[in-house]
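Bug #77: duplicate submission created two jobs. Keeping one. Sequence:
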Amino acid sequence: MQDNFSKSKELEVAIKAALEAGAVILKYFNEGMAHELKEDRSALTLADTESENIIKKIISDAFPDHCILAEETGYTKNSHSYTWYVDPIDGTRNFAKGVPLFAISIALVDDKDMLCSVVYNPATNSLFYAEKNKGAYLNERRIFVSKNKLSHSMMTANRGKKEPDDKLFRTLLHELPKNVVPSVRDFGCTALDLSFVALGALEAVISLGLKSYDFAGSALLIKEAGGKITKLDGSPWEFPEDHFIASNGVFHDLLIEEVKKQKEKLGLK
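Kept job's structure:
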């Protein structure tokens, strides 16, 4: 199914920003500059900074009164209630190692209401985007979550830097393949993990304590592709809650129960 909806100005601007920033970071990636980091990460920092500057300029030129929260430069407060969440390179370690699993992530949010989003991997020319109540798309083709059950499922898990999250993450990587899902991976790029669920390539993601800009761009994709997102305990999820389960919805309740069981074993609240 091809993209036949009229994109808002906001989505058009987000797509433009992602494509232009993507062209810049792809040069670093293809020329190997990001793979030869000095101790101070200078080449990678430059790629991050250039990408973020391009995105922020394009957004600010189009919407000077909008707020922006970006990974490298933090929060820019303005008069409007709209806030753009920007991750100039999600999957930094992959990018630095020459692994083509990284993405630019941009999302527009009004308080907790996700309005539009873009996730772009320039290495594979994969442009994911969504707009509230208008569906999710990959390169102008509408996408949907899979209907796969447990026997044909694959999922990922990721975590932030807090010790409890790391403990639970490592436990889930070990226990989930035995008890629930045949294959559990860690691709190292949350934006793509969630986008792959929207695409139907993965069935679920368990996310533990990441930054809001890591998942802002792709959470809307899952909702618009027919997927399901809840807190770890199954209660309703709202952006920017950073502990959640996102899935195709087929075995979501089983994931909730398994996470609960493993948290109890670890003595986590």
